[in-house]
Amino acid sequence: MPRTKICDALFFPLHDKGENHPSPNFNQYVREQGAVTDQLSRRQVRVYQLYSRTSGKHVQIHGRKVTATAEDGNTFARLFVETDTFGSRVRIKGAESGRYLCMNRRGKLVGKVGHR
Question: What molecular function does GO assign, one term (predicted)?
Fold first, then answer.
């Protein structure tokens, strides 16, 4: 007995009265909204430890000094990853030191009190 396929399809018009609308530019919206604090979304804060494959240890923020020499569970290796924007920007803050993970002009990682 031959197999038959029954296919039901529903078609809905995308535009009323044949109007042609340009596609919205979502990239521009994401760029603009990611630059400012989002007052509508919930602020997200998660706790992580960053592992360095090079040293085989965890990254720690100990004052201004940032190293990858901490053992698993070290209090200075506990890092808060915070976000409060629409885009994907995050801030990384040491749970024990209270300092943010930043990069100086030479590209070296340092701990700073402010996040700017």
Answer: growth factor activity
Confidence of residue 7 (pLDDT cuts 50, 70, 90): very low
Q: 3-class SS at 1?
A: coil
What size, in residues, is the chain? 116
Q: Cα–Cα distances in Å, from 23 out to 17, 30, 74?
A: 17, 15, 50
Q: Which domains are assigned to the chain?
A: 44-116 (2.80.10.50)
Q: pTM above 0.70?
A: no
Contact, 42 vs 26, CB < 8 A? no
